[in-house]
Specification:
The protein has 627 residues and is α/β, with parallel strands linked by helices. Strand 6, helix 16 and strand 7 form a beta-alpha-beta unit.
Length: 627
């Protein structure tokens, strides 16, 4: 076994784009070299096979002396050696293909190519989740689709869990520090991923394997068969040999053989049930030893990474890779069941009894530890995803965690999923604070809310954020943005929105005000007058819990809340202007209430023949609604 290694740090001057390009080019060159080697092995195997077959045929037809069988045997041995070496080349080719693909994915994350990644995390979406759907946490074009570089379903689920639930301040700091150590260890991160993807065609799910490992004894009822299987085949063989030397009747060994057949029939049900359950849970995990071995060899500095690495050793001095190699070795005996000669082998040796009891002993010794092994690997995969985001987005910053809140302060904050986001400053300094965002259509109000929400989610998952500086206290993010009606449930748009607002209010109260609410144009499904009254009341109820957040609106009557709440509610706005008859947006957040509208201009741009309204007053009066 190779000794511990410390992955060298990458050059600070090398950009991610350049590094991924160089690595992909190197992997492609190595793949071409291995293809040439594979072709040479294929030709050699063909030559050796042809020569051996020719010699064997010549001996059979009397063209060569019987000594020629030795030459044919040597040719067979050479062919087997070449086949084994060729298989190793195949494995190295498979690894290089994974390196090519992995670095191609890295380059895709430098542009919008990551939108084509197939794993989008839709299975983690839930209509009842408090923010995931509104903030593009999962689904097409989501932050999960951007970040996910896991190789097991357990790792995927751990990353999804971190993005779905805010961590405590100590947990966030620990994840940040561990992820920072992994950032320059690109070799390690990619090698772990490549090893895992090489051994499994599809993303492996350890859940079934864990369930089998933690299940109770499966062979208790046929425990008697173990000593019988050890004694009976040698006895049968002895009877056969004694019969051959005429020391016993020639039929004596048939007694032992029929006894073995009886044992095989009596144990068949239990052995088959165990084999089926184990095979369903295995799913390639017999070949996961190299993955754990690569993790075991890395020399970590941070205590959290050492703790994770230690979780792969626990109660024994032997590493996990050694235990999985042992499992792989034992499982290879059970796989003989798929061979056409298995029935005969099992009849003469009681093969399955030996194989299954050996695997049962492995499960009794290590089964209780298996969950911890794969949970440790899943946590390492999730941390690697945080490190990968930081590596791919060097302009992102690690947020500062505040102990008390709710509190959010961002300088130069942009949307983490946009290629070139416009940066804005946002501040919610304490409990019961709110930003009231007004602005013309398409000016950036909703994008600002999503940027604030998504960066907060990233920060509380332990990831870097899209900002020059970002500080936040642990808060529960609550959103109401993409409300949908439901014909199946008989729920109208308005009632669906009411249900969502009720869920937001309940969650804010349950969090005892430690919440960040983000509401986009709430209660659009009712008339202007009632919407104005209801919106003020909803905001009042939220602020009363101590929660802070932001609300977008076209109802200028809400602007008066800034005076009512003594500065805890702040009016901010976005605007547009005309250049050469075209609307131009700068997406810059400004203080105060907007004094421009653009609904008619947007309709005209879309080709709707609307007439202009008479000149409007310089500033809308309170109580009006902006188009």
């Amino acid at each position: 076994m190779r000794g511990p290694v410390t992955t060298p740090a990458l050059s600070d001057s090398a950009s991610p784009d350049r590094t991924y390009t160089e690595r992909r080019t190197a992997a492609e060159a190595e793949l071409r070299r291995l293809d040439a080697v594979s072709a040479r092995y294929a030709n050699l195997r063909a030559v050796v096979f042809t020569a051996g077959a020719a010699v064997a045929l010549a001996v059979m037809f009397g063209r060569l002396p019987r000594m020629g069988w030795w030459a044919a045997g040597v040719a067979l041995l050479v062919y087997i050696v070449l086949a084994v070496l060729h298989h190793q080349v195949f494995l190295r080719e498979a690894r290089q293909r994974q390196f090519v693909q992995l670095n191609a994915r890295g380059l895709a994350r430098m542009s919008r190519g990551w939108h084509d990644f197939p794993e989008r995390g839709e299975r983690f979406l839930s209509g009842s989740h408090l923010y995931a759907a509104d903030l593009d946490v999962f689904g097409q074009g989501s932050v999960f689709q951007l970040m996910n570089e896991t190789a097991t379903r357990a790792g995927e689920e751990r990353l999804a869990a971190w993005l779905s639930e805010p961590a405590t301040a100590p947990e966030v700091r620990t994840r940040q520090e561990a992820a920072r150590e992994l950032i320059p260890r690109l070799d390690f991160r990619q090698e772990v991923c490549v090893e895992a993807r090489t051994v499994a065609r599809e993303k492996a799910d350890p859940a079934l394997f864990i369930a089998w490992a933690e299940s109770g004894p499966a062979l208790t009822e046929i425990q008697w068969a173990r000593p019988v299987a050890l004694l009976l085949p040698p006895i049968t063989l002895t009877l056969f040999l004694l019969g051959q030397f005429e020391l016993l009747p020639g039929w004596a060994w048939w007694v032992g053989l029929f006894a073995q057949l009886g044992v095989a029939l009596m144990t068949r049900g239990r052995l088959q049930a165990m084999e089926e359950r184990m095979s369903a849970g295995e799913r390639g995990f017999v070949r996961y030893a190299p993955v754990f071995e690569r993790v075991e060899r890395e020399r970590f500095e941070h205590p959290e990474l050492r703790r994770i690495q230690g979780g792969m050793q626990r109660e024994t001095h032997e590493p996990v890779s050694a235990h999985l190699k042992r499992f792989s070795f034992l499982y290879s005996f059970a796989e003989l069941k798929r061979h056409q000669f298995h029935p005969l082998v099992h009849l003469f040796t009681l093969w399955d009894v030996h194989a299954m009891f050996a695997l049962e002993r492995w499960k009794q010794r290590h089964g209780a530890q298996v969950r911890g092994w794969f949970e440790a690997l899943a946590e390492l995969e999730a941390l690697s995803c945080l490190a990968g985001l930081a590596y791919d987005r060097p302009g992102f910053v690690w947020p500062t965690l505040e102990e008390t809140g709710p509190r959010v302060k961002a300088e130069g904050m942009g949307h983490a999923l946009l290629d070139a986001p416009v940066l804005n400053d946002v501040s919610l300094p304490g409990p019961g604070c709110a930003l009231l965002l007004t602005g013309s259509n398409m000016s950036g109000k909703t994008t600002l809310l999503r940027a604030l929400g998504l960066n907060t989610v990233l920060a509380l998952a332990g990831a870097p954020v899209c900002a020059r500086a970002f500080s936040v206290s642990p808060v529960q993010v609550l959103t109401s943005m993409r409300v949908k009606d439901s014909l199946e449930r008989g729920v109208s748009y308005f009632y669906a929105e009411v249900q969502r607002i009720k869920a937001v209010l309940d969650a804010a109260a349950a969090a005892r005000g430690q919440a960040l609410f983000l509401l986009d144009e709430i209660l659009l499904g009712t008339n202007t007058r009632e919407r104005q009254i209801a919106s003020r009341e909803v905001l009042r109820l939220l602020l009363a819990t101590g929660a802070s957040g932001g609300v977008t609106t076209h109802d200028l009557s809400l602007a008066s809340l800034a005076e009512e709440y003594g500065g805890r509610v702040v009016n901010m706005h976005f605007r547009d202007h005309l250049e050469d008859g075209k609307m131009v947006f700068d997406y810059q957040l400004r203080p105060g209430v907007v004094d421009t509208t653009n609904a008619l201009r947007v309709l005209k741009m879309a080709g709707v023949p609307v007439e202009d309204l008479p000149p409007a007053p310089a500033r809308p009066t309170p109580g009006e609604s902006l188009p």
